[in-house]
Design goal:
By secondary structure, the protein is mostly helical. The protein has 2 domains: 165 residues, no CATH class; 73 residues, no CATH class. The strands form 2 sheets. It has a two-stranded antiparallel sheet with strand order 1-2. A two-stranded antiparallel ribbon has the order 3-4. A hairpin with a 6-residue loop joins strand 3 and strand 4. The N and C termini lie far apart (139 Å).
Amino acid sequence: MDTQHDIALTHALAEIPGPLPVSGVIHVAIPHTSRFTVVGNHLAQHADLSLTAIGIGVYIQSLPAGSQVGIKALAARFPEGERTIASALRELETHAYLHRSRERLANGRMVTRTVFCNQPGALLRGAAVVPVTVAVAPVPVVTPAVPAPVVPAPLPAPEPTPVPEEAHPPVRVPSRIGPKPPRRPLPQPRELTPELHLSASALLADLRRHAPELVLSEDDVEELAPGAAAWLERGAHPDAIRHALTTELPQPPKYPAKIVRHRLTVLLPPPLPGAQELTPIHRTPVTPFQTCEGCDRAFRSPAPGHCRDCRAQYWEAA
């Protein structure tokens, strides 16, 4: 079988026009007639995506609508572990290829809605969305290999002519599919001393004794230690930090490290006030009102007596 394949490949290479490159890949491009998916080079050659993320993105794009693409479903299909697959899905979310949201159905059940966009850049520019019907064709019967003529790869299709709105109204995709805003940075202490770093790391590693769901890896503890150190530097007691990080956890917590990072960031207490801020404000004493012993009028004086007019009359009489 291998020999037959090698012979067919040799004939195919001989049909390629022009000199072959001396190094690098040589493409034998045979047009697909069934069971194929069009993938943009912006995904296949993405400079910031890992190879795992690109592969999972291509796989999801090739599936029919309604297919299960959760972490456990992908881990059951591929040899990569759940942690690697979860990291790849987060990469696709960061670059707007993938969007996941929790929604409540009419019967009250919560489900995860997954949306995959094959061209995030075009979506942000307001391009119309064309519904795609995904059909799986039957596997063709294998026949003896016959060298097929090699044709050059097809040129990119020209931009489609805009269709009047009355004839084909575009399908609007919710704006929430756009890229997420950057998350708030993890708090940092003013000075991360070795003693402070050790105390923060020990506090984070000890969380699983108080909440078995919060099992952090060594890398997670090393990454989150500055955030816990910022709490300790601001005078927060370790018991108070544990209570803030372990109380009312979602069940089940899918990403313990993300939960701890979020709470360290949004629940950070303010610095303790200094002695100057706690000094009470001294107010000027107010002179009380007195009732005049001569005319019963009210006047301000530190002691009872007569008002100004009555005192003047007494002075004139004297």
